[in-house]
Structures are given as structure tokens and as C-alpha cells.
């Protein structure tokens, strides 16, 4: 342990002059991973027609990625601790690019699904190593705030940027470029990483906790898969219930095993820390609400208001700009002087307020007066929240655990996304069906009633999302008690 402290002290005294260029490389890789959760959403109708996918199977283009990514993140984080962050970062980048090229060249649905799963596997190696490289590259509190501001902005806005890029590529090239685009991005990031990133080697003599991998990753896969299947099948379907039961058993067994094994996959002191646990939970709840917004707004703008893919993507641009401003200009500056919860709580209240504004949408709403204000409030709120979550969750972690801590932040994000998509979509569809059934009995025109029913379903789900975001604010206020960071991370390393 003393060796780790000394190493960190040396790192603090020797500041890398090219660290901001290193941040560009890390940010590029992170953006690519987050983009890929949504970039194919807008391309999905074209890919479905091209490859002859059934309606029942098309969700696997999204699910295969989130399942592999969310399920294997803990393993990816531990691998980066064992073999070194730079090496796992490079492996993740190259593998992600190869998987993207296979997906772009897919000749049938099965090949595309497999490529998306492979992308998820390498994303699970790439994302934790990117975040832990960031924590070890920036040790000065002021610079750390700026670096995490940029990282938080990308984590929050990457999904929205995915819609814009996906819309442009689908409309002006074709859907395959939504996957091919990762190859040049990864190539630039690999060259940058080789030239700019430094890292201490992996932990010598450490062993991988194989039973922990099987139990932990198996439990997360069952959980994410259960939520993704709840959407098409319904919550009471035997498969869905079996998956949730399996997830509960496997995750309970995982926690039990982690208390006994000498080299745990997830050292439990990481989760027992009150601030860190509060950050993980806040992140998960915030993302549940945010993914609901992305899902409904994409369909609302394209199907109800008749926007083209490019116009839909551009409609998300103010949200992205607001997240970047909230994260880099407000949060990054204030976190040096204010406790994290004084940013996270108002952030979640703002985001929930944006959701409440959005509940006023109708079948013929005006974008400028009813959609834009909601997106701006949401973006500022997310920017205020994400940056302190990343900075607080990864502060003061022993170097040997930084990869797995970063992975746990990413896991809470992925699980939140899966829950949000399934839960809010199910609420929206059941509310829509009930509305249509009630109003068709009045003898109204079917087309108009169905459109009104769809929007009614969105509004009900958006109210739920607003409630979840307020809950995230309560969690942050009660659990995250950390003070404003006064010192560099080098002096905060804990065992």
C-alpha cells in the first residue's frame, strides 16, 4: 500500500506536459463508446429493410450491445487493473474498430447482432480503462475538475450526438456508415494513445477472480436481458420473471463470494463507501430518466411531428450544448469550492423540471415553445450532475482498484439505461393502448385517436421519468456527504 502512495506522490510531482492532448485521446474513445448506444437507433429502420429483420428481432441491434457492455464491465475494469490501463485501452480500441467493421459489412441479421455484441465486449474493456487513465493523468484538483467536466459532458451528451451523427450518415450515405465511422475514430485514438498515454504496469502477481466473473457478469447479463425482454414480452412473462430471479440469485451469490475471496472482482469497500454508493445510485436513476427522454423524443419528432432523421438529430443539438455548458463551465468551476451534492441536487431538480415542461406536448406542439425549453433545462441539469458524480466516485481510490471503480460507475450507467428503456417504454405503450381503447369507443376517427394515444403514453412515461430524477436528487442529497476537494488525488488515496 505504501508503494502505491509513493507512486502516486511521484505522479503528482511530475506533471505530464502533454496531459491535455492525452485527454483528447481518452475523450475520443469515450465518445465512440457512448455514441454507439444510440447512433444505430435512427439507422435501424433502414438496416431492418436492408437485411430483412423481423420486428421481433430488430431490438437485438440495440440489446446485443448493451447486454455485452453492461454485463462485462466489471470484468473489463478488473482486466485494466491487472494488465495495465494503457494496454487494455489499446486492446479495447482495436477490438471495437474490428467489430464495427464486421457490423458495417453484415450480410444478414445474425452477423450484425454478433458484431454488435462484440462491440459491447470491447467497449467493456475500453470504458473503464479510459476513465481510470483520466483519474491517474490529472492529479491537481483544479485541472481534475476541468478534465472531469469534459468527460462528464461527453458521457451525458454522447447519446444525443449519436442521434445527430446517425441521422446525417443514414440520410446522406447509408446505415452501414453508422458502424464504419468507428474505424477512423479508433485509428486516430490508437495513434494518439501510443504517443501520449503513460501508465504504470498492471498489478504483479494479482489473479483474476474467475467465480466472481461468472457470478457477477452472469447476474448483470441476466438483469439487463430481463429488462430488455420486459419491453416486448411484458413484466409477467415467465422468461422475464426467470431472468430477474436468476439475476437476484447470482448477484446475491456474487456479494457473498466477494466477502470471502482473497482477490475479489469488486472489492466491497468500494461500494460500502457512502459517497461512492450515493454516486452510483444517483447515476443509475439519472440515466433511467434520460434514456426515456431520448427514446420518446426520437419517435415523437420523427413519427408524430414528421421530422427527417437529420432534422431529428439537429433537434437534440441544444440538449448537447446545454450538457457541455453545465458540465465544463458550471460544474467544473464550482466543484473546487462547493460540496458535490450542492451541484448534484439542483442538477436533478433542473432535469426533473425539464421533464415536467415536456409533459405539455401534444400531437401538434411547436418545437421552440414546448420542446426546446425542456431540452435546455434537462441538459443543464445533466451537466451539473454527471461531472461531480464521475469526479467523486473515482476520487481517493487506491491505484490497484481504479479500473474496477471506473467500471462500477459505467455499470450503473448501463443498467440505468436498460431499466429506463424497458420500464418507460412499457409504461408508455400500456398507457397508449388504454387511451386508444377508451377513446375509440366514442366513435372518433381512428388515425387521430392513435396519434393522440401515442403522445398520451409518452406524457405518462415522462411524468414517471421526472419522478425518478427527483428521487436521484434526494439520493444525492442524503448519501453524498463529501466536502469540496481541497487537495490532489495523490493525497487522498485510501486502501
Tags for this model:
495 residues, mainly alpha, Growth Hormone, Chain: A
Describe the structure.
The structure is a single chain. The chain has 495 residues and is mostly helical. It has 2 domains: 406 residues, Growth Hormone, Chain: A (Up-down Bundle), CATH 1.20.1250; 52 residues. It is 80% helix and 0% strand. Helix 2 runs antiparallel to helix 8 and helix 3 runs antiparallel to helix 9. The longest helix is centred in the C-terminal third of the chain and has 39 residues. The protein is globular, with a radius of gyration of 22 Å. The N terminus and C terminus are likely disordered.
Layout of helices and strands:
Layout: H1 2-13, H2 19-51, H3 60-83, H4 85-104, H5 109-137, H6 141-172, H7 177-180, H8 182-196, H9 210-233, H10 238-258, H11 268-272, H12 274-304, H13 309-315, H14 317-334, H15 341-358, H16 367-394, H17 402-440, H18 446-479
Subcellular location: Cell membrane
Main location: membrane
Transmembrane segments: 20-40, 60-77, 89-107, 113-136, 148-168, 174-196, 208-227, 239-257, 278-301, 313-335, 342-363, 375-398, 419-438, 458-480
